[in-house]
Amino acid sequence: MKLDTSQAPIGLRVLVVDDEPAVREATAACLLERGWGATAVTDGKTALEAHARECFDLILMDVQMPGMDGFETTRRIRELEAKTGGHVPIIGHTAHGHKTGVEKFSVAGMDDWIAKPVAAQDLYSVIERWHSTGLRPPLQDSAQKILSDMMDRKRKKRELVVTLISSMSEGHKEACKSFSEGDCEQVEFWSHRMAGALAVFGFDRARDIARQIEALAAGSRLDGVGELLGGLNEELEAIKISLAENNS
Length: 248
What we know:
This protein is α/β, with parallel strands linked by helices and 248 residues long. The protein folds into two domains: 13-130, Rossmann fold (3-Layer(aba) Sandwich); 143-247, HPT domain (Four Helix Bundle (Hemerythrin (Met), subunit A)), CATH 1.20.120.160. Helix content is 62%, strand content 10%. The protein has ten helices and five strands; from the N terminus they run βαβαβαβααβααααα. It has helices at residues 21-33, 44-53, 70-84, 97-100, 102-108, 120-130, 143-180, 184-200, 204-218, 225-247, and strands spanning 13-17, 37-41, 58-62, 90-94, 112-115. β1, α1 (21-33) and β2 (37-41) form a beta-alpha-beta unit. α1 packs antiparallel against α7. The longest helix has 38 residues, at 143-180. The chain is globular and about 50 Å long.
């Protein structure tokens, strides 16, 4: 299948800000496949440093991050622009856009937002809404190159899933630790992070369990969370086994 870039803006440089490694890498891979430049960073502080160092055409900003969240990072970028001039479009990227409220994105200085999980074409559409000028000519790929690209995408997807499993193992460990300490806020944080990443990769059963944990913790309730964490661990182990079988 040939990638259609006939309507893609030329040479866009996008800064991807997301604390979840698998989501960050998957998003960057989508942008690179479209023919755009992607710089991926892990948190708000690093995003500010990258913004000060380089000129980006657009920033894709995760909202819920530890330390400096996406709203605060956006506010600081807008404060800097008020002094230096310019305005880079910032697109909020969140698993709970409907709960966060559209007005909160606007107040922080974000130009638009998109909910996780996001299909590649939806991601392209929201970016092109802010950069619709400068059209790339259609690519004429040989059959050999198309096949090679397909194989590369399959390999990249496997690598991303491996990254996801590693990240989910860490998240599950931290959620269990927070649960044992009775820390609802941290249980909510880690389960939210896991739910968002699992949704991106289509692991719906594991995602649903993580969301149940998040909802309980958000309501300062931990009864039943231990059992749910056990169920989530079983789902993660099943994903690992499936991945190993597919790669054997």
